[in-house]
Write a structure and sequence with these properties.
This protein is an alpha/beta fold. It is built from 19 helices and eleven strands. Strand 7, helix 7 and strand 8 form a beta-alpha-beta unit.
């Protein structure tokens, strides 16, 4: 049995109705919370294959990827809030956008029964904070995308999503669907499907007048706490990451650079602050029994990021889901109680809030909170431990390289490149990339800068005839005829068939055999 599926069985197992209700102990923030539920399609991706994967019948109707999006946002404190059951009813319409009210009720009752929750369970009638379709407050607010755990619904952690909206965030979530089926798959295709869902939600937020698209974070639980890493490696607009006991630890093979990994996930491309909130640690013996490889840790490799690792000792993996905390039997909490796990869950939400305030709102008090000891933050004793790692703010990336040249001048191209390459051998510009860049500068009227980029080219690729030819052309156009002649000749030495160099030498009053 896989590591992730074992955890999911614990999370989703049928159980008798819980004896006590989950209590989210955090106080609502200064804002009311609005909620919308939108059903749309991502027409850029096919979701359903030509035949039904269960019955084999030909598919009728829309085949694009269904995206039911839950959006929470700041509003005024007024109106009738939704109940917890109404959140649970959204699970029935994640794929089926045409279900009528009775079908939704029946499907919800069936789903609740699978959780051991009778329709009369007290948690279901409990009013939440959000008011459906409430008018949005004016102003701009940072955007948070919530990525659920493996195959889980967008309503998995509604308490956290409401809490963040009440603190001045726009929050969006959609269900964790596989690339082709409702069930997620434990492979790179499944991860990248959820990462693409995150990208779709970011694009959806763009249409919201409240959304500040210059401040974006992604919070993910379990599998979603690995998919968000892939999303951040592909989109540098994501300015902060939160991983709630994320699969960064359980599935390192997807991010360790190996044969099954997403090769674009590198420390340099993850120069983004990360908060990792972990369950209580496993013993070495337990890890060994489950054959979990501990030889690689992406978080240990993220040397260009500020990384906070908060370990919640009362919590097991399923306790990061408020659905689990509501409906799981008491025995699921092992030596701790439901109330202790729930309190730790609430403190998890506080740390998420403070982390986002620190990095998306640049809030000084929040940064102090994140750097405090647990005791200084008045966390109950023995609940959590904190490990803080400071990152180097100059990752070896093209963006860093270009930004440095923009500040210090293109004459610094070679030493700057060498310094970044020394940090990571993975930082290397291709010869065609350098050549194209130089000509873009040349055509833009920045001949001297183009010369410096072509000089970088022959520094990195000293036997590249084309780059010598390009350097000579840039020098010719900037009036340095002697250097142009030398470099046309060097290009000819490397490639005697370079007709352009022959023609340019003639134009400069030289022949191929003459010395400059």
């Amino acid at each position: 049995m896989s590591r992730l599926l074992a955890a999911l069985i614990i999370l989703m197992a049928s159980a008798t109705s819980a004896a006590a209700d989950f209590a989210f102990s955090n106080v609502q923030g200064p804002h009311g919370v609005g909620l919308t539920v939108s059903q749309m399609y991502d027409y850029s991706r096919v979701y359903k294959l030509r035949v039904d994967q269960i019955t084999g019948a030909a598919i009728q109707g829309e085949r694009a990827r269904p995206m039911q999006v839950l959006r929470w946002y700041p509003t005024r404190r007024q109106g009738k809030p939704v109940t917890y059951r109404q959140y649970m009813e959204t699970i029935a319409t994640e794929e089926n956008f045409t279900a009528d009210a009775q079908a939704v009720r029946n499907a919800t009752d069936t789903w609740l029964a699978s959780q051991g929750a009778a329709p009369s369970h007290g948690a279901l009638a409990k009013p939440m904070w959000a008011v459906r379709d409430a008018p949005a407050l004016p102003g701009k607010y940072p955007v948070v995308i919530y990525a659920p755990s493996f195959s889980a619904s967008a309503a998995e952690n509604v308490d956290l999503c409401e809490y963040l909206a009440s603190q001045g965030y726009v929050v969006l979530s959609s269900a964790s669907l596989g690339a082709r089926t409702r069930s997620m798959t434990i492979d790179l295709e499944g991860l990248e499907a959820q990462a693409a869902d995150i990208a779709f939600l970011i694009a959806t937020a763009q249409a919201m007048p409240q959304a500040d698209m210059n401040r974006i974070a992604v919070v993910g639980f379990s599998w979603g706490g690995l998919a968000n890493v892939l999303a951040a490696a592909r989109d540098d607009r994501i300015g902060a990451l939160v991983s709630l006991d994320g699969s960064l630890r359980g599935f390192p093979e997807f991010v360790n650079g190996g044969k099954d990994a997403a090769k674009y996930v590198t420390p340099a491309r993850l120069a983004v602050p990360l908060l990792y909130v972990a369950r209580r640690p496993d013993t070495l013996e337990s890890l060994n029994q489950r054959q979990i490889d501990t030889s690689f840790s992406l978080m240990n490799q993220m040397k260009y990021s500020d990384v906070y690792i908060v370990t919640m000792h009362p919590m097991t993996h399923p306790d990061f889901s408020s659905i689990h905390l509501r409906f799981a039997p008491e025995r699921a909490f092992e030596e701790y109680s439901r109330d202790e796990a729930a309190l730790a869950h609430s403190w998890t939400a506080r740390y998420v809030h403070q982390f986002l305030d620190a990095y998306l709102k640049n809030d000084t008090a929040a940064r102090t909170f994140m750097n405090n000891s647990a005791a200084a933050n008045k966390v109950p004793r023995h609940m959590l431990t904190l490990d803080v790692r400071r990152g180097d703010d100059t990752p070896p990336t093209l963006e860093t390289f270009v930004r440095t040249l923009g500040k210090e001048g293109f004459a610094r191209a070679i030493p700057t490149y060498d310094a970044l390459h020394a940090k990571s051998e993975a930082f290397r510009l291709q010869d065609s990339q350098i050549n194209t860049w130089g000509y873009q500068l040349l055509r833009g009227g920045r001949g001297k800068d183009a010369v410096e980029i072509f000089k970088l080219g022959i520094h990195v690729y000293p036997d590249n005839a084309n780059l010598f030819d390009s350097l000579a052309e840039a020098q010719e156009k900037t009036g340095d005829r002697d250097q142009a002649t030398r470099n046309y000749r060097r290009s000819l030495e490397l490639n005697p068939k370079n007709g352009n160099a022959v023609e340019r030498l003639k134009a400069l009053g030289n022949t191929a055999g003459a010395q400059p």
